Protein backbone atom coordinates (compact mmCIF):
# COMPACT_ATOMS: atom_id res chain seq x y z
CA UNK A 1 0.00 0.00 0.00
CA UNK A 2 0.97 3.63 -0.32
CA UNK A 3 1.70 5.85 2.66
CA UNK A 4 3.16 9.29 3.19
CA UNK A 5 6.45 9.21 5.04
CA UNK A 6 9.37 11.53 5.71
CA UNK A 7 13.06 10.82 6.17
CA UNK A 8 13.80 14.26 7.66
CA UNK A 9 12.04 17.05 9.52
CA UNK A 10 11.32 20.13 7.46
CA UNK A 11 8.93 21.92 5.11
CA UNK A 12 6.13 20.35 3.05
CA UNK A 13 8.67 18.98 0.54
CA UNK A 14 9.92 16.36 3.04
CA UNK A 15 6.63 14.50 2.60
CA UNK A 16 7.04 11.59 0.16
CA UNK A 17 5.01 8.60 -0.96
CA UNK A 18 6.42 5.19 -0.08
CA UNK A 19 5.24 1.57 -0.48
CA UNK A 20 4.80 -0.44 2.73
CA UNK A 21 2.99 -3.69 3.62
CA UNK A 22 -0.65 -3.39 4.66
CA UNK A 23 -0.62 -3.59 8.49
CA UNK A 24 -2.44 -6.37 10.37
CA UNK A 25 -4.97 -5.34 13.02
CA UNK A 26 -4.06 -6.63 16.49
CA UNK A 27 -6.31 -7.31 19.49
CA UNK A 28 -8.95 -4.60 19.82
CA UNK A 29 -7.95 -3.04 16.51
CA UNK A 30 -9.52 -2.70 13.07
CA UNK A 31 -8.03 -2.18 9.63
CA UNK A 32 -9.64 0.74 7.79
CA UNK A 33 -9.35 1.57 4.11
CA UNK A 34 -8.92 5.33 4.24
CA UNK A 35 -11.54 7.34 2.37
CA UNK A 36 -10.30 10.74 3.51
CA UNK A 37 -8.17 12.39 6.16
CA UNK A 38 -7.57 16.06 6.92
CA UNK A 39 -4.74 18.43 7.72
CA UNK A 40 -4.37 19.65 11.29
CA UNK A 41 -1.83 22.03 12.75
CA UNK A 42 -0.32 19.18 14.73
CA UNK A 43 0.47 17.31 11.48
CA UNK A 44 2.51 20.29 10.32
CA UNK A 45 4.20 20.65 13.71
CA UNK A 46 5.21 16.98 13.67
CA UNK A 47 6.43 17.23 10.07
CA UNK A 48 8.66 20.20 10.87
CA UNK A 49 9.80 19.05 14.32
CA UNK A 50 8.05 21.76 16.35
CA UNK A 51 6.58 18.85 18.33
CA UNK A 52 8.22 15.43 18.47
CA UNK A 53 5.99 12.94 20.25
CA UNK A 54 6.34 10.48 17.34
CA UNK A 55 10.11 10.33 17.86
CA UNK A 56 12.60 10.84 15.03
CA UNK A 57 11.62 10.19 11.37
CA UNK A 58 10.69 8.13 9.47
CA UNK A 59 7.03 8.37 10.47
CA UNK A 60 3.62 8.98 8.93
CA UNK A 61 1.57 11.90 10.23
CA UNK A 62 -2.21 12.29 10.37
CA UNK A 63 -4.90 11.74 13.02
CA UNK A 64 -8.25 12.27 11.30
CA UNK A 65 -9.80 9.33 9.53
CA UNK A 66 -12.93 8.45 7.62
CA UNK A 67 -13.12 5.17 5.77
CA UNK A 68 -14.36 1.60 5.60
CA UNK A 69 -13.51 -1.28 7.89
CA UNK A 70 -11.84 -4.08 5.88
CA UNK A 71 -10.51 -6.26 8.71
CA UNK A 72 -11.03 -6.75 12.44
CA UNK A 73 -8.58 -8.02 15.05
CA UNK A 74 -9.37 -10.43 17.90
CA UNK A 75 -11.82 -9.15 20.49
CA UNK A 76 -13.52 -6.56 18.26
CA UNK A 77 -17.29 -6.84 18.34
CA UNK A 78 -18.35 -3.24 17.69
CA UNK A 79 -17.50 -3.24 13.98
CA UNK A 80 -17.42 -5.61 11.06
CA UNK A 81 -16.07 -5.49 7.54
CA UNK A 82 -17.86 -2.95 5.40
CA UNK A 83 -18.78 -0.57 8.23
CA UNK A 84 -18.28 3.12 7.48
CA UNK A 85 -16.33 4.63 10.38
CA UNK A 86 -14.59 7.84 11.37
CA UNK A 87 -12.57 9.12 14.27
CA UNK A 88 -9.47 10.68 15.75
CA UNK A 89 -6.90 7.92 15.54
CA UNK A 90 -3.76 7.69 17.64
CA UNK A 91 -2.72 4.41 16.08
CA UNK A 92 0.45 2.61 15.09
CA UNK A 93 0.43 4.35 11.73
CA UNK A 94 -0.66 7.86 10.76
CA UNK A 95 -3.75 8.41 8.66
CA UNK A 96 -1.95 9.74 5.55
CA UNK A 97 -2.01 6.16 4.35
CA UNK A 98 -4.13 3.87 2.13
CA UNK A 99 -4.90 1.57 5.06
CA UNK A 100 -4.85 2.50 8.74
CA UNK A 101 -4.86 0.30 11.83
CA UNK A 102 -6.94 1.94 14.56
CA UNK A 103 -8.14 0.98 18.00
CA UNK A 104 -11.79 0.08 17.61
CA UNK A 105 -12.66 2.18 20.66
CA UNK A 106 -11.31 5.31 18.94
CA UNK A 107 -13.85 5.06 16.09
CA UNK A 108 -17.55 5.71 15.66
CA UNK A 109 -19.99 4.64 12.97
CA UNK A 110 -20.18 7.35 10.34
CA UNK A 111 -23.75 8.67 10.26
CA UNK A 112 -25.81 7.92 7.16
CA UNK A 113 -25.62 10.87 4.78
CA UNK A 114 -22.21 12.06 5.96
CA UNK A 115 -19.62 11.48 3.24
CA UNK A 116 -15.96 10.69 3.79
CA UNK A 117 -14.80 14.25 3.08
CA UNK A 118 -16.82 16.15 5.71
CA UNK A 119 -16.43 13.19 8.09
CA UNK A 120 -12.64 13.40 7.80
CA UNK A 121 -12.77 17.14 8.40
CA UNK A 122 -14.49 16.71 11.75
CA UNK A 123 -12.59 14.56 14.26
CA UNK A 124 -9.82 16.82 15.58
CA UNK A 125 -11.37 20.19 14.71
CA UNK A 126 -14.87 19.43 15.95
CA UNK A 127 -13.64 17.69 19.10
CA UNK A 128 -11.50 20.72 19.92
CA UNK A 129 -14.38 23.10 19.28
CA UNK A 130 -16.92 20.98 21.18
CA UNK A 131 -14.69 20.26 24.16
CA UNK A 132 -13.48 23.88 24.29
CA UNK A 133 -17.06 25.12 24.39
CA UNK A 134 -17.95 22.48 26.98
CA UNK A 135 -15.09 23.74 29.17
CA UNK A 136 -16.34 27.32 28.82
CA UNK A 137 -20.01 26.30 29.13
CA UNK A 138 -21.47 29.56 27.76
CA UNK A 139 -25.09 30.20 28.71
CA UNK A 140 -27.73 31.75 26.48
CA UNK A 141 -27.08 35.45 26.01
CA UNK A 142 -23.45 35.34 27.14
CA UNK A 143 -20.85 37.03 24.96
CA UNK A 144 -18.36 34.61 23.40
CA UNK A 145 -15.29 35.83 21.51
CA UNK A 146 -13.67 33.30 19.15
CA UNK A 147 -10.24 34.09 17.72
CA UNK A 148 -9.44 32.54 14.32
CA UNK A 149 -13.18 32.10 13.82
CA UNK A 150 -12.84 31.22 10.12
CA UNK A 151 -10.41 28.33 10.63
CA UNK A 152 -10.98 24.61 10.95
CA UNK A 153 -11.75 24.71 14.67
CA UNK A 154 -13.13 28.25 14.75
CA UNK A 155 -15.89 27.89 12.14
CA UNK A 156 -17.29 24.92 14.09
CA UNK A 157 -16.83 26.60 17.48
CA UNK A 158 -18.86 29.64 16.44
CA UNK A 159 -21.74 27.34 15.41
CA UNK A 160 -21.60 25.39 18.69
CA UNK A 161 -21.61 28.68 20.61
CA UNK A 162 -24.62 29.92 18.64
CA UNK A 163 -26.42 26.63 19.29
CA UNK A 164 -25.98 27.34 23.01
CA UNK A 165 -27.67 30.70 22.47
CA UNK A 166 -24.55 32.81 22.97
CA UNK A 167 -23.85 36.16 21.32
CA UNK A 168 -20.83 35.32 19.18
CA UNK A 169 -18.01 37.66 18.20
CA UNK A 170 -15.32 36.41 15.82
CA UNK A 171 -11.96 37.73 14.65
CA UNK A 172 -11.07 37.19 10.98
CA UNK A 173 -9.91 39.08 7.90
CA UNK A 174 -12.64 40.99 6.05
CA UNK A 175 -12.68 38.38 3.27
CA UNK A 176 -14.16 35.92 5.78
CA UNK A 177 -16.81 38.17 7.32
CA UNK A 178 -19.70 37.20 5.05
CA UNK A 179 -18.83 33.52 5.57
CA UNK A 180 -18.93 33.99 9.35
CA UNK A 181 -22.19 35.95 9.30
CA UNK A 182 -23.72 33.12 7.27
CA UNK A 183 -22.69 30.76 10.07
CA UNK A 184 -24.57 32.95 12.55
CA UNK A 185 -21.73 35.05 14.00
CA UNK A 186 -23.24 38.24 15.43
CA UNK A 187 -20.21 40.52 15.26
CA UNK A 188 -17.00 40.21 13.24
CA UNK A 189 -13.76 42.10 13.78
CA UNK A 190 -11.09 42.45 11.11
CA UNK A 191 -7.96 41.90 13.16
CA UNK A 192 -5.77 43.34 10.37
CA UNK A 193 -7.36 46.81 10.67
CA UNK A 194 -8.93 46.88 14.15
CA UNK A 195 -7.47 46.13 17.57
CA UNK A 196 -10.26 44.05 19.14
CA UNK A 197 -9.41 45.40 22.59
CA UNK A 198 -10.63 48.85 21.47
CA UNK A 199 -14.06 47.80 20.17
CA UNK A 200 -15.42 45.16 22.58
CA UNK A 201 -15.56 44.59 26.31
CA UNK A 202 -17.51 42.61 28.95
CA UNK A 203 -16.88 39.33 27.19
CA UNK A 204 -17.94 36.23 29.18
CA UNK A 205 -15.91 33.67 27.24
CA UNK A 206 -12.83 33.90 25.05
CA UNK A 207 -12.03 30.84 22.94
CA UNK A 208 -8.51 31.65 21.75
CA UNK A 209 -7.30 29.69 18.73
CA UNK A 210 -4.44 32.09 17.97
CA UNK A 211 -2.61 32.13 21.29
CA UNK A 212 0.67 33.92 21.99
CA UNK A 213 0.11 37.60 22.80
CA UNK A 214 -3.63 37.22 22.11
CA UNK A 215 -3.83 35.86 25.66
CA UNK A 216 -3.15 39.00 27.70
CA UNK A 217 -4.97 41.15 25.16
CA UNK A 218 -8.03 38.90 25.47
CA UNK A 219 -7.97 39.15 29.26
CA UNK A 220 -8.40 42.92 28.90
CA UNK A 221 -11.85 42.45 27.32
CA UNK A 222 -12.87 39.53 29.56
CA UNK A 223 -15.17 40.04 32.54
CA UNK A 224 -13.63 39.46 35.96
CA UNK A 225 -15.74 36.29 36.29
CA UNK A 226 -15.21 35.27 32.62
CA UNK A 227 -13.57 32.15 31.20
CA UNK A 228 -10.54 32.16 28.91
CA UNK A 229 -10.16 28.85 27.05
CA UNK A 230 -7.33 28.21 24.63
CA UNK A 231 -6.17 25.32 22.47
CA UNK A 232 -2.78 27.01 22.02
CA UNK A 233 0.12 28.25 24.13
CA UNK A 234 -0.59 31.83 25.22
CA UNK A 235 0.78 34.47 27.54
CA UNK A 236 -2.34 34.35 29.74
CA UNK A 237 -1.35 31.14 31.54
CA UNK A 238 -0.86 32.82 34.94
CA UNK A 239 -4.40 34.19 35.07
CA UNK A 240 -6.95 32.28 37.17
CA UNK A 241 -9.48 32.52 34.32
CA UNK A 242 -7.06 30.66 31.98
CA UNK A 243 -7.69 27.07 30.91
CA UNK A 244 -5.91 25.16 28.14
CA UNK A 245 -7.64 22.21 26.49
CA UNK A 246 -6.33 19.29 24.48
CA UNK A 247 -8.84 17.55 22.27
CA UNK A 248 -9.57 13.95 23.30
CA UNK A 249 -11.00 11.25 21.03
CA UNK A 250 -14.57 10.60 22.18
CA UNK A 251 -16.35 8.54 19.52
CA UNK A 252 -19.89 8.90 20.95
CA UNK A 253 -19.54 12.67 21.06
CA UNK A 254 -18.11 12.70 17.52
CA UNK A 255 -21.00 10.60 16.19
CA UNK A 256 -23.44 13.09 17.73
CA UNK A 257 -21.59 15.96 16.02
CA UNK A 258 -21.53 13.97 12.77
CA UNK A 259 -25.30 13.56 12.95
CA UNK A 260 -25.68 17.35 13.19
CA UNK A 261 -23.47 17.67 10.10
CA UNK A 262 -25.41 14.97 8.24
CA UNK A 263 -28.77 16.62 8.93
CA UNK A 264 -27.49 20.08 7.98
CA UNK A 265 -27.55 21.66 11.46
CA UNK A 266 -23.76 21.96 11.42
CA UNK A 267 -21.94 23.31 8.40
CA UNK A 268 -18.55 21.77 7.73
CA UNK A 269 -16.69 24.05 5.36
CA UNK A 270 -14.01 22.49 3.18
CA UNK A 271 -11.53 24.98 1.78
CA UNK A 272 -9.96 22.48 -0.63
CA UNK A 273 -9.61 18.76 -1.19
CA UNK A 274 -6.22 17.47 -2.34
CA UNK A 275 -5.29 13.91 -3.21
CA UNK A 276 -2.28 12.61 -1.30
CA UNK A 277 -0.30 13.05 -4.54
CA UNK A 278 -0.44 16.76 -3.65
CA UNK A 279 0.08 16.49 0.10
CA UNK A 280 2.85 19.14 0.01
CA UNK A 281 0.43 21.65 -1.58
CA UNK A 282 -2.16 20.84 1.09
CA UNK A 283 0.37 21.47 3.87
CA UNK A 284 1.50 24.70 2.19
CA UNK A 285 -2.10 25.96 2.05
CA UNK A 286 -2.65 25.08 5.70
CA UNK A 287 0.67 26.65 6.63
CA UNK A 288 -0.42 29.94 5.03
CA UNK A 289 -2.51 30.41 8.18
CA UNK A 290 -5.44 31.60 6.07
CA UNK A 291 -7.30 28.49 5.00
CA UNK A 292 -11.06 28.78 5.53
CA UNK A 293 -12.55 25.80 7.33
CA UNK A 294 -10.69 22.56 6.65
CA UNK A 295 -8.16 21.21 4.15
CA UNK A 296 -8.98 17.58 3.32
CA UNK A 297 -6.86 14.80 1.80
CA UNK A 298 -8.12 11.86 -0.24
CA UNK A 299 -6.17 8.78 -1.36
CA UNK A 300 -3.73 8.77 -4.26
CA UNK A 301 -5.32 8.98 -7.71
N1 LIG B 1 -5.01 21.69 21.76
C1 LIG B 1 -5.61 20.96 20.83
O1 LIG B 1 -6.05 19.82 21.08
C2 LIG B 1 -5.78 21.55 19.48
C3 LIG B 1 -6.51 20.85 18.50
C4 LIG B 1 -6.71 21.46 17.26
C5 LIG B 1 -6.17 22.72 17.02
N2 LIG B 1 -5.45 23.33 17.99
C6 LIG B 1 -4.88 24.67 17.76
O2 LIG B 1 -5.95 25.55 17.46
C7 LIG B 1 -5.52 26.51 16.53
C8 LIG B 1 -6.51 26.60 15.39
O3 LIG B 1 -6.46 25.38 14.66
P1 LIG B 1 -7.17 25.30 13.27
O4 LIG B 1 -7.05 23.89 12.81
O5 LIG B 1 -8.51 25.93 13.33
O6 LIG B 1 -6.20 26.23 12.41
P2 LIG B 1 -6.40 26.74 10.94
O7 LIG B 1 -7.61 26.14 10.31
O8 LIG B 1 -5.10 26.56 10.22
O9 LIG B 1 -6.63 28.31 11.14
C9 LIG B 1 -6.66 29.11 10.02
C10 LIG B 1 -7.46 30.35 10.35
O10 LIG B 1 -6.75 31.17 11.28
C11 LIG B 1 -7.18 32.50 11.07
N3 LIG B 1 -6.19 33.43 11.60
C12 LIG B 1 -4.86 33.43 11.35
N4 LIG B 1 -4.25 34.41 12.06
C13 LIG B 1 -5.24 35.03 12.77
C14 LIG B 1 -5.26 36.12 13.69
N5 LIG B 1 -4.14 36.76 14.03
N6 LIG B 1 -6.44 36.48 14.23
C15 LIG B 1 -7.60 35.85 13.89
N7 LIG B 1 -7.64 34.82 13.01
C16 LIG B 1 -6.47 34.42 12.47
C17 LIG B 1 -7.34 32.59 9.58
O11 LIG B 1 -8.35 33.51 9.29
P3 LIG B 1 -8.05 34.73 8.27
O12 LIG B 1 -7.78 34.07 6.94
O13 LIG B 1 -9.29 35.51 8.32
O14 LIG B 1 -6.81 35.39 8.80
C18 LIG B 1 -7.73 31.18 9.14
O15 LIG B 1 -9.11 31.08 8.81
C19 LIG B 1 -4.11 26.12 16.09
O16 LIG B 1 -3.21 26.94 16.77
C20 LIG B 1 -3.96 24.69 16.56
O17 LIG B 1 -2.64 24.40 16.92
C21 LIG B 1 -5.24 22.77 19.20
Structure commentary:
Strands 3, 4, 5, 6, 7, 14 and 15 form a 7-stranded mixed sheet that branches. This protein has 2 domains: 2-122 and 268-298, Medium-chain alcohol dehydrogenases, catalytic domain (Quinone Oxidoreductase, Chain A, domain 1, Alpha-Beta Complex), CATH 3.90.180; 126-244, NAD(P)-binding Rossmann-like Domain (Rossmann fold), CATH 3.40.50.720. It has helices at 41-48, 116-121, 123-136, 154-163, 177-182, 214-221, 251-262, 279-287; strands spanning 2-5, 16-19, 29-38, 64-72, 84-88, 99-103, 107-109, 143-147, 167-171, 187-189, 203-208, 222-230, 242-244, 270-275, 294-298. The chain is built from 8 helices and 15 strands. By secondary structure, the chain is an alpha/beta fold. The longest helix has 14 residues, at 123-136. The radius of gyration is 19 Å and the shape is globular. β14, α8 and β15 (294-298) form a beta-alpha-beta unit. Bound molecules: NADP nicotinamide-adenine-dinucleotide phosphate (NAP). NADP nicotinamide-adenine-dinucleotide phosphate binds next to α3.
Unreliable segments of 5+ consecutive residues: none
Structural class: alpha/beta
Topology as a string of helices (H) and strands (E) = EEEHEEEEHHEHEHEEHEEHEHE
List the total number of helices.
8
3D shape: globular
Amino acid sequence: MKAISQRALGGPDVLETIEVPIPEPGRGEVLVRMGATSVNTVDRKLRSGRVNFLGPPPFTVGFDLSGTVVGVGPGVTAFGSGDAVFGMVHGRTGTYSEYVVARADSLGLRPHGLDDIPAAALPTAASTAWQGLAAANPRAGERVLVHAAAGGVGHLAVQFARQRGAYVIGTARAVNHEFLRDLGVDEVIDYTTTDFTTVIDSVDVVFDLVGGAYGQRSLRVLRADGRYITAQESDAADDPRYRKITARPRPAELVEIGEHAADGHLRVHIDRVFSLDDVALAHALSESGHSRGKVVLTPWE
